[in-house]
Amino acid sequence: MRAGALLLFYVCFFGGFCSSTHMKRGLPLQTQSQIRSKRESHVAGGRGFSSGSPVLKRSSDMTKFPVTKSEQLLRIDDHDFTMRPGFGGPAIPVGVDVQVESLDKISEVDMDFTMTLYLRHYWKDERLSFPSNKNQSMTFDSRLVKKIWVPDMFFVHSKRSFTHDTTTENVMLRVFPDGKVLYSLRVTVTAMCSMDLSRFPLDTQTCSLEIESYAYTDDDLMLYWKKGNDSLQTDERISVSQFLIQKFHTSTKLAFYSSTGWYNRLFITFTLRRHIFFFLLQTYFPATLMVMLSWVSFWIDRRAVPARVPLGITTVLTMSTIITGVNASMPRVSYIKAVDIYLWVSFVFVFLSVIEYAAVNYLSTVQERKERKLREKLPCTCGLAHPDEMMMSSSYSDMDVNTTGTYGIPEDINTTGNYGKPEENGVQQERILVQLALGEDQAALHTGNPPAYNSMWIDTHAIDKYSRVIFPGAYTLFNVIYWSIYL
User: What single string gives the DSSP state of each residue in 154-194?
Assistant: First the structure.
């Protein structure tokens, strides 16, 4: 009995405890959603603290809220940006302005120039409008440019061009709330420039950079300079080694293509004047000095062949080197340049100085041969020096007819054919008395008439004396005419 009562007690005790426990565990299972919501409100309310406590005033975490993307704000996915704005309507106006950063290179050989510039486009695309309380624009980089419509500009007659991409692509897109767009990029372009080198290096060149839409005719896109001539801005530090930049200006024209139609074309035209000082030092002065050096041979004795011949050849070869050096850095044009005229005329003067000595030497040799033959015809050559031992003077003067003796024979030359004394001023004058022993003259002697004598005055250096005046005078006249035409 006692054991049964004790067992019943244990059963009742543990049975009541378990039932109460199961009742308590069943309640949360029935109100699980309610208790979870109470826990969340408890955490939000400050974990049991009163709502007025300053500890509970915390800002909400904005990173937990979704942020509107720029593409969604601009509604890019809602429109077809492969079509131009206002498709089917009037031509969309696109304004352009340019800031020239540098004029890098101008090449006469390749007939082109290289320029770095900031190219900016302005247009309005209502598809990109967005609401804004502060009317502030949004700026993007090249990633958005690939998803919207932009003008398809290209450089006419360009050989090479690229957009700078260091450290990222130098492209900027700025969109305003009303749909206005500013598109800017930094470009380096090498374009063709047809140069007229007929006055080189005293020339002035005019080159132009032409901008045009590739696909859209003037019915779809109208290009214009946004601020007129003020749309072109240049850096004051722009300089080119061989040129002086005189002016930049803008213009607009229509270009026609037979297969596609009319297009608006924008021109950036700049005028360059070449610096002359470099070519004066490298070309003109050396050529002038070579011509003047060739004149030195006119003062050298004609018998100094080792002195005159190498001097003439050296000046000719030097002029050939100067001409070759200048033409090596120039294009092979089919017309004559100004520098060619100067160099070739100088070359002709140098060449003529060599020819002048050849003429002097030849005429002197011929004259000596004639003199030798005439001496052999004299009736008496007593007292005459051997022809090879005779020295011809570099200057001669006319015979003094007042000092003649009988039969017109000079008093200082006797009938034996001896030469006279040197005249004053130290000038050795050689006179040759030639008696033509002809039958008629001998007959005249028997009849009592004076014999016929011919006196030859030999002046083999007359060409040198004239050349000392003619060559410098002619070259000076050429320089006066040349510089008056091209300067």
Answer: EEETEEEEEE--SSS--EEEEE-TTSEEEEEEEEEEEEE--
Does residue 403 contact residue 411 with C-beta atoms inside 8 Å? yes
Q: Rounded to whole angstroms, how far apart are CA atoms 474 and 487?
A: 20
What was the pLDDT predicted at 143? 87
Q: What angle do CA 136, 138, 142 make, to 5 degrees?
A: 165
CA-based nearest residue to 316, from 356, 340, 352: 352
Question: Distance from first CA to last CA of the chain, Å, rounded?
Answer: 147
CA nearest neighbour of 185 among 217, 215, 229, 155 = 155
On the 0-12 / 13-18 / 19+ scale of CB atoms within 10 A, 253 is exposed
Task: Give the chain's length.
Answer: 487
**Alpha carbons 339 and 329: distance in angstroms, whole number:** 13
From start to end of 90-163, where are the E strands?
92-107, 112-124, 138-140, 153-156, 158-163
Nearest Cα neighbor of 79 from 165, 167, 170, 147 is 147
Residue 322 exposure: Cα atoms within 13 Å on the Cβ side? 28
Examine the pLDDT at 341 and tell me if it is beyond 90. yes
Measured from the Cβ of residue 201, the count of other Cβ atoms closer than 10 Å reads 23
Rounded CA gap, 174 and 391, in Å?
96
Least confident of 166-175, 231-240, 255-264: 231-240
In sequence order, what are the residues at sequence separation of 6 or more whose Cβ sits closer than 8 angstroms to the Cβ of residue 440? 452
Token reading at 198: 């007929």
Query: For residues 298 and 201, what is the distance between their CA atoms, to the nearest angstrom?
Result: 33
Q: Are strands 453-456 and 180-192 parallel, antiparallel or unpaired?
A: unpaired
Q: What's the Cα-to-Cα distance from 485 to each of 10, 190, 206, 306, 480, rounded to whole Å?
A: 137, 33, 20, 40, 9
Least confident of 37-41, 81-85, 257-261, 392-396: 392-396
- Distance CA(75)–CA(81), nearest Å, equals 11
User: DSSP class of residue 379?
Assistant: S
Beta carbons of 127 and 79 less than 8 angstroms apart: yes
What integer is the mean pLDDT of 12-21?
Answer: 48
